[in-house]
Amino acid sequence: MALDSGGGLSLLLGNQDVPPVLEENARGRSPFLLTCDHYGRLIPRRLGDLGLPESELTRHIAWDIGIAGVAEALSKHLDAHLIAQRYSRLVIDCNRPPAAASSIPSISEATTIPGNEGLARDAAEARRQAIFDPYHGRIREIIEQRLRENIPTVLVSLHSFTPVYAGIARPWHIGTLYHRDTRLPPLLLDLLRSEPDLVAGDNEPYAVSNETDYTIPVHAEARGLMNTGIEIRQDLIADQAGQTQWADRLARIFAEIETMLRAQRLLPA
Ligand SMILES: [Zn+2]
Questions:
Q1: Cα dihedral sign for 111, 118, 43, 46?
Q2: Local mean pLDDT, 10-residue blocks, the chain (269 residues)
Q3: 232 CA distance to ligand 1 centroid (A)?
Q4: Which pTM was predicted?
Q5: Angle CA(168)–CA(212)–CA(33) in degrees, nearest 5?
Q6: CA triplet 97, 235, 258: central angle to 5 degrees?
Q7: Which residues lie near ion ligand 1 (Cβ < 5 Å)?
Q8: How far apart are the CA of 160 and the centre of ligand 1, in A?
């Protein structure tokens, strides 16, 4: 496939496809920078339905159900910049290193993705150039701009998870995900665990690693930025009422965290 070399959208995305990057509240004054790798489930028109029925394209293998509404409301409540990605992770997973097999999965959970089987290298590269690169390029650009302008930046990567995976039920309502940051995740975990109605996972249902993640290792850990991932169980945020409740709760908790980080001089007082 021919690609344009001008740094614009590749030919994978045509006139009727929307850009991959969605931003809210770009002038937000919060130190928290919100990212949402699995915000959307769009598929570029050229790729059709990837050979999958609608029933597969609406479930968690395609996107993080419910997180878009939480991310947008949280961005408003915190006055925080949100950078999100609109295309399905079945097209290309924006939280996987592009060299990983799971970047463009030919199988997800127990579902074979016909449109991803035996994918030629230039077709994979086209997906990267059209979707992955603009999204991560924008996050990089914003972080660098904030650093230049001395705006404190704490990366919060928002996700949702399925209550049952490969037949195993997961008991948590929410989990913190982290690897190298020892500052923010313990504060967040403490506050989540002091909510009487919550079961909060410590690096559950996933932990962050360089092999299985991209956003936190590359944008936050490599720069020494404070960061955490958050996973919310998708059935709790499947409708707007749930999304509103969780955004309200997280806004309250992150306001407390901001106060604690300022008191500890981890953010400017
Ligand atoms: Zn996710």
A1: negative
A2: 43 93 97 98 97 97 98 98 98 97 94 96 96 98 97 98 92 96 96 97 93 97 98 98 98 98 94
A3: 10
A4: 0.95
A5: 105
A6: 65
A7: 38, 64, 159
A8: 6
